[in-house]
Specification:
alpha+beta, seven-stranded mixed beta sheet
Length: about 525
């Protein structure tokens, strides 16, 4: 495919000089280097000193001096990280998420070639052939009481010259990984390795957007929920088993917000711990896509799509999911089927997770007892108990509100026209515009045993309101900045400032071509 390369020339030209992060030398040997990092409690930048403690074929691992002195991490940790990236993570990420090869052409003549998207990303930055990994204690306001922390992040500003538009850059392709509480909560380093896979996908998605979702003066970044969904899938691809903290959050629903409709489609619409609903539900959705597509090839179709919204997933599903290809192939059908799968969860077929261990326990909660209506944002959905009196035909679809009857029988039943005895009424907002308004969804109002009381009891037992110390749970830097009231910093992580302005500064004559169509 051919795409204008103005942004690519601009970025490669910007990230060409070293500034205040110069290397220190002692007797001819490298002893340390200064890096910029962002304080996620106030979005301000600060400098730290780090030491190069490990280097592999594809990466360099730098460790914050303070983190090493506090014994958060060691040289052994750095070496293990470098080996895992070289021998495991790198190739797995290339296999599933890369466009390859990548070729730059000028009027038909090849001027540069890259084996994969990570090589291309490195060329855009410092062109040293290796990913920089910085281990540091990310300043995010973490405490055992608030539970969530940022285990790592990728920051697109590092592809720009330092102080571009006032932002500090390390002028290299890099990923930041937390040392506390990441290594304290898991001395094996598996949390950091899963996070490294997660953030590597973000970096690859950034570079791929420049290739296939850009024009001369703009870049269309993938919607947050898709980018995060692919990164959650990257953790599974690396780890080879399910990420416990994600499916447990869905199962427990300790904030009682998933049962009231909250999920990933409008990312970050609620505050505090409910942001974890987004991570939990998007993880399940992308696992369901993999199962229905009989493999992870669907992820590559999504990441290389020219679309950046739900259409990227819709089109990938058309090519990879047999039952979806044979139908109308519309997003509403795909999304509704996943919602049904969370309630039915059959051992086989489209209304379940293929009987996979652990995911067999996925079970959507009913709304609290006595609830007869709920305000739903686009993509939100709720389930209420039925008694077989035809609730779907009783309720009329609103502007975007849809209803379906669900039944757990064999591979499951979904009906757009009727319900089943002792089944569930699915009420959902089918609007594909993430900025759309809330709309009222009707519910049956029937008591679903004691599930409402059970949810309340679970929350009370965890003392959520009282701030009980909880097992650390990971969220991205963007969401941590938003939680800390720093919308300005969150916007930067979303790529809405620097590139949009910088893209207007320069044009280019050559184009970008990738090996994928």
């Amino acid at each position: 495919m051919l795409k204008p390369a103005a942004l690519l020339v601009l970025i490669s030209a910007l990230a060409a000089q070293a500034c205040s992060n110069a290397l220190e030398e002692d007797g001819g040997g490298l002893t340390g280097k200064y890096f910029w990092a962002q304080n996620l409690t106030n979005s301000k930048f600060y400098q730290l000193k780090a030491e190069l403690l490990a280097e592999g074929k594809h990466c360099k691992v730098w460790v914050e001096e303070a983190s090493r002195l506090k014994n958060y991490v060691s040289s052994a940790n750095a070496s293990a990280l470098a080996s895992a990236y070289d021998e495991n993570i790198y190739q797995k990420m290339i296999n599933v998420f890369s466009i390859e090869p990548v070729e730059l052409t000028d009027n038909g003549a090849t001027i540069a070639q890259f084996g994969d998207i990570l090589e291309f990303a490195d060329w855009l930055a410092d062109d040293d052939g290796k990913l920089t990994i910085l281990l540091l204690d990310i300043i995010d306001g973490y405490s055992p009481q608030n539970g969530s922390y940022t285990a790592g992040y990728f920051f697109l500003v590092d592809f720009f010259e330092d102080e571009t538009n006032g932002y500090r850059s390390n002028e290299t392709d890099m990923i930041y990984l937390d040392t506390y509480p990441a290594y304290k909560s898991d001395s094996s380093g598996q949390v950091s390795l899963k996070t490294l896979a997660h953030e590597t996908q973000h970096l690859m998605n950034f570079a791929t957007s420049l290739l296939v979702r850009s024009t001369k003066d703009s870049v269309h970044w993938m919607d947050t929920w898709i980018d995060e969904g692919l990164s959650s899938a990257a953790e599974y691809i690396y780890f080879g088993s399910h990420v416990e903290e994600r499916y447990k959050w869905f199962k427990n629903d300790i904030m009682n917000t998933i049962s009231l409709g909250n999920n990933f489609f409008v990312w970050g619409n609620l505050t505090n711990a409910s942001i974890l609903d987004d991570y939990a539900t998007v993880y399940l959705f992308f696992q369901w896509l993999r199962i229905q597509a009989s493999g992870s090839e669907i992820y590559k179709e999504i990441i290389r799509s020219g679309y950046w919204d739900y259409q990227a997933v819709e089109n990938a599903a058309k090519g990879k999911i047999a039952w979806f290809t044979g139908g109308d192939g519309k997003w509403d059908d795909l999304f509704k089927t996943w919602l049904a799968a969370n309630y039915i969860n059959a051992e086989s077929g489209k209304y379940g997770y293929g009987g996979e261990p652990i995911l067999k326990d996925v079970s959507a909660r009913m709304v609290p007892a006595g609830t007869t209506s709920v305000e739903l944002l686009p993509g939100e959905a709720v389930y209420s108990k039925t008694d077989g009196n035809g609730y779907v035909s009783k309720y009329t679809n609103g502007s975007n509100i849809r209803y379906a009857g669900l039944k757990k029988d064999g591979e499951g039943t979904l009906s757009d026209s009727d319900t089943s005895p002792d089944g569930a009424l699915l009420s959902y907002n089918a609007n594909t515009n993430k900025s759309g308004s809330k709309e009222t969804g009707q519910l049956t109002g029937l008591v679903a045993e004691t599930v409402g009381q059970a949810i309340a009891a679970t929350a009370a037992s965890r003392n959520i309101a009282g701030g009980e110390a909880r097992e650390p749970v990971r969220i991205d830097a963007r969401d941590m900045l938003a939680r800390n009231g720093r919308a300005d910093g969150a916007a930067t992580f979303n790529g809405t400032k620097i590139l949009m302005q910088a893209a207007l500064l320069k044009d280019a004559a050559f184009t970008v071509e990738s090996g994928d169509e």
